[in-house]
Amino acid sequence: MLAFLRRLAGHLVRGIVMIWVVTTFTFVLVRLMPGDPVQTQYEKLLAQGVSAEQARAQVQVTYGFVPHGSWLSQYGDYLWKLLHFDLGKSVSAQGVSVRTEVVGALKWTIGLVLAGVLLSFVIGVLLGVVAAMKRNGHVGSVLSLVGSLLHGIPQYVMALVLVTFLTVKLKLFSTGPVDGLLDPGFNGPYIASIISHAVLPAAAFALSSFGGYLLTMKSSVISVLGDDFILASELRGIKPSIIFRYVARNALLPLFTVLALSLGFMIGGAVFIEHAFNYPGMGAMLIDSIGSRDYSEMSGAFLLITGAVILANIAADLLYSVVDPRVRHGGAA
Amino acid sequence: MSTTVDLPVSGATVAPARRTGFWRNLWKVLKRKPSRMVGAVIVVLFVLTGLVGPWLYPDNLPRDSNQILAGPSLSHLLGTDFEGTDVLALLITGTRYVLVAAAFAALITVLIGTGFGLYAGYRRGAPDSVLMRITDFVLTIPGFPLLLVLSTVWKFSSALQMGLVLGLTGWGGLARSVRSATLSLRERGFVEAARGLGMPTRHIVTRELLPNIAPYVAMNLLIGVTTFIYSQVGLFYLGVLPFTSNNWGVMIQLAVTNGVTQTGAGLGYLMAPLVAILLLTLGVVLLVDALDEVFNPRLRED
């Protein structure tokens, strides 16, 4: 237990350092932007007849720091704001705080990502077991080939093909998160609309990522099949169905870390799917903020995406040491 | 963001690679399965297209304003775009940018990844921990969002600049695999023997370690090239980059902004680059299967 806590502390410290480095990076980035957006907003406010005092205050609210004073004090201001989860105010949507926007976008992304990841995990694991069992036959080699092919195809290709054929040509689905005319809230038609709009993007997710799970599961099952304890249980005449349960349980272990990692990456990786399906999540928000040069929103979205990946990394490491005793006792690799 | 091939770290089968044997082996392995031949042919065709493609057409492709977003026909095999330009011509001339950027990115990845991995694995100690912290950092930061954010300060105006940025953000995985391979190699007999004989470090690294790591670097490179292709095409597709020259990503982006995904008109314009990416993926996957067997003799079926 003490070892576990020490591990946890180490991971957390490393994660915090990483987040600090990324925040510093976004700070420097915003300062390096061509045309200096901070100074530009300040001067624009002055030109509108706003007093220097007020202009400074407003810029401070938007970016978390003022354009005057030393870099060090600007940096201090920025970090202090972030420490209070204050990401500044959006420039393109005047007056809305970035935190509100991020939370609004995150809601859509998380639903989509969860559905997509779980779907691809289940399909990938099941097909991976089949591919491992039939590895010497045609079924196995076809599955492996399809797995590596789909694994290699970029998400946007999958998304665009599905959008074009299923929503435009066949009109089976529609894009966007939900039908615009419905009453938002917890009512039947609204929820049904959300679900029917999420089916295709989630399928695009699953199709472009189940190959990875398939290949990992296949090699994992094959390596477990070679373990001595399987041979021993076969020799003792234990029923194949029970042996299969042993195999499955042991082979699944490495996949959980992949699952945890992909949940983190998908928050940012949803960029293409959200773009293709016109879905208002984190990825779409990041692209929009770049298109409109809304730097405070951009750094907010980027910080959140990176934070999610770092947290997922820590979770994956810890999860691995919990589910696999060999790692726990072997010490840190 | 980059996929890397796992190294069989136990590596009992790693034998010093011999240059002459490599091509003969590759040919033998390719001949064994027709699918691998197909893969090699596809990859070679793409490389040739990238090399000679732009010379086949005039600098400014002709426009046919009577045929806008037309479907495939004899005069335009893949149809036309929203200005009436032949899609096949766009596809072929656009190949070079995509491949040059990916190849340059791969070169940078190999230089940094192999260099860092070898040095960290061979020296160990403090330089190792420092380099691996940097590697962890590069690996953890989500690559594509980072590229998106960088596109606001960096214009990626040429294929080489694009390649440089892709390479600088994508070497983490390779550095990790090279390091772990080096760690296991340095304890092995032939390296210890070289050390015992008093060979200089430079000799051990370039003559003993590098030849053994080269196969994995090569495989990672091939897969890395496809990842780099997808990333840059994706950046253009999302429309965050200004473009000066034609390439696959620009085609996809223009097709989408001109409403091909909404109306379905001019489907060839959208599908051509998508199918090109699918074909290239297929080629690389099939070729990697062959390389796998060349480099891991254990997989050989005979």
Automatic annotation (TrEMBL), chain A:
InterPro entries: MetI-like, MetI-like_sf. Keywords: Membrane, Transmembrane, Transmembrane helix, Transport. SUPFAM superfamilies: MetI-like. The chain crosses the membrane at residues 12-33, 108-130, 142-168, 188-215, 251-273, 301-320. Residues 106-320 form the ABC transmembrane type-1 domain. PROSITE patterns: ABC_TM1. The keyword Transport applies. GO terms for cellular component: plasma membrane. The keyword Hydrolase does not apply. Its main location: membrane. It holds the Pfam family BPD_transp_1. It is found in: Cell membrane; Membrane. It is a multi-pass membrane protein. One of its GO terms (biological process) is transmembrane transport. Belongs to the binding-protein-dependent transport system permease family. This is Peptide ABC transporter permease.
TrEMBL record, chain B:
Keywords: Cell membrane, Membrane, Transmembrane, Transmembrane helix, Transport. Pfam families: BPD_transp_1, OppC_N. The chain crosses the membrane at residues 37-57, 97-122, 134-154, 160-178, 268-288. Residues 95-288 form the ABC transmembrane type-1 domain. SUPFAM superfamilies: MetI-like (SSF161098). It comes from the Bacteria. It is found in: Cell membrane. PROSITE patterns: ABC_TM1. InterPro entries: BP-dependent_transpt_permease (IPR050366), MetI-like (IPR000515), MetI-like_sf (IPR035906), OppC_N (IPR025966). GO terms for cellular component: plasma membrane. One of its GO terms (biological process) is transmembrane transport. It is a multi-pass membrane protein. Belongs to the binding-protein-dependent transport system permease family. This is Peptide ABC transporter permease. It comes from Actinocatenispora thailandica. The lineage of its organism: Bacteria, Bacillati, Actinomycetota, Actinomycetes, Micromonosporales.
